[in-house]
Amino acid sequence: MAHETSAVLPSKPASPRLRVAAVMDTWIVSGPGRQLAALAQALKSHEVDLCIFMFQRTGRDPSPFIGYLERAGVSHVVIPDGGPLDMSLPGRLRRAFGAFQPDIVQTHGYRMTTLLFLLRRSGLRLPWIAFFHGATDENWKVRLYNRLDGTLLRRADRLVVLSEENRRVFADAGERLRLIHNASFPIPPAGEPVRLDRLRRADEPLIAAISRLSPEKGLDLLIEAVARLRTRGKPVSLAIAGDGQERTALERQAAALGIGDRVHFLGTILNVTSIYSQVDAVVLPSRPGREGLPNVLLEAMRADAPVVATAAGSVPEVLAVPGSGELVRPGDVDALVEGIEAALAHGRSPTAAAARAAAIGRFSLERRVAAHLTLYAEMRPDMLAWAPVGPPATAVP
Fold first, then answer.
1. Coil, strand or helix: which one is 397?
2. What is the pLDDT of residue 141?
3. DSSP three-state, residue 26
4. First-residue to last-residue Cα distance in the chain
5. How far is the C-alpha of 71 from the C-alpha of 90, rounded, in Å?
6. What span, in angstroms and rounded, lies between the C-alpha atoms of 367 and 184?
7. Contact at 8 Å (CB) between 343 and 309?
8. Buried b (16+ CB within 10 A) or exposed e, 149-183
9. What is the per-residue pLDDT for 164?
10. Which of 42, 62, 300, 350 is deepest in the core (most CB within 10 A)?
């Protein structure tokens, strides 16, 4: 039986403040979750109360994201979730909205898009902003959900994407489409630091990938690149933080290539920020068409870690500052090898560090806050009359 909805809500303000309900379905402390928590904190000083509505699967351990929000002091509502066949979930979410009384609702993820669409069909009349963070290829069910999501996203009053690549995909949304990049900001620690010194070999670089283990992330290409580096006489060790349905296949691939002892699968790591200072480079080998703006890229660069990334999603926009990172062709293992070699050779130079700092400075949290205020003012000009109205200027030149 589902438990009662729990909530940490802001108190009723003495003067009118815009109230935004941000609905997200995540169990882990994900990059989009950290982005949303930072945004909620920053919006408080701009007369906006953003409350995160999240779900807790019945019978499952408490989500680490709940503790993260509590430590950050972010208003949130935890709604019991009985699983895919829980037909009472839309009604439970609607009642939670009734308690918070939002002026705007924003959704993050395909399941949340579907819930808001159903609530609208049943009469909910609230301005709706849908965020598209990218898609995954985990299995046929997820691909089906993503296809449905692509259709329903276009029913929202505003559709927000994170990259020029995805702006082209949703160009048919016309005047309702907005581009708002993720932001770079200090990440509070979540969990105990992970120690990677045991993975290092003498005089051998250690590189890392922090990712969901699913096909679109291209980790098979990275493992192949590690094998080719070994044949060139430049062996490296690879630490992979994250989990997913591809883990067994990736482990078998590494073993078949003779590098099983050099590819280390760490599983889900809560404190991913502790990894960046312990590795010689962070690699993002994503395939094109599925990425938004990878939070790992922003986090690694903020931590001054050399990065190698394929030209997927908003990666080219982040690495537009010359020398800030190695940008390589997606799907090209040889290009990935060359990028890793270049990062290991030059990534720790003062010039590269200065370029990373300049690149990250273009993706400030203040810039994202301004973009959200502009977006909210479009939806509720009666409450944010002082904010500029019009397409938010967040596309980095």
1. coil
2. 65
3. coil
4. 52
5. 28
6. 10
7. no
8. beebbbbbebbbbbbebbbeebeebeebbbbbbbb
9. 87
10. 300
Distances (CA, A) of 363 to 119, 318, 369, 390: 34, 8, 11, 20
For the ranges 2-16, 34-48, 111-125, the lowest mean pLDDT is seen at: 2-16
Contact 246, 279 (CB under 8 A): no
Q: How far apart are CA 268 and CA 242, in angstroms?
A: 4
Q: Do residues 265 and 232 touch, judged by C-beta distance below 8 A?
A: no
- Read off the tokens for 322: 């010359």
pLDDT digits (tens, 9 = 90+) for 98-113: 999 999 999 998 889 9
Which strands make up the sheet holding 128-131, listed edge to edge?
6-8, 76-81, 48-57, 18-24, 104-108, 128-131, 158-161, 177-179
Ramachandran category for residue 33: left, alpha or beta (phi over 0 → left; psi -120 to 50 → alpha): alpha
CB atoms within 10 A of CB 226: 23
Spatial distance between the Cα atoms of 64 and 191, rounded to a whole number of angstroms: 9
Q: Are 196 and 279 in contact (CB under 8 A)?
A: yes
Q: Give the type of residue at 118.
A: L
Q: How far apart are CA 181 and CA 62, in angstroms?
A: 30
Indicate the pairing of strand 6-8 with strand 76-81: antiparallel
Determine how β-strand 128-131 pairs with β-strand 158-161.
parallel
In terms of pLDDT, which residue wins out, 187 or 232?
232
How far apart CA 279 and CA 272 sit, in angstroms, is 12
Which tens digit of pLDDT belongs to each residue from 137-188?
656 666 677 777 778 999 999 999 998 888 988 999 999 999 999 999 988 7
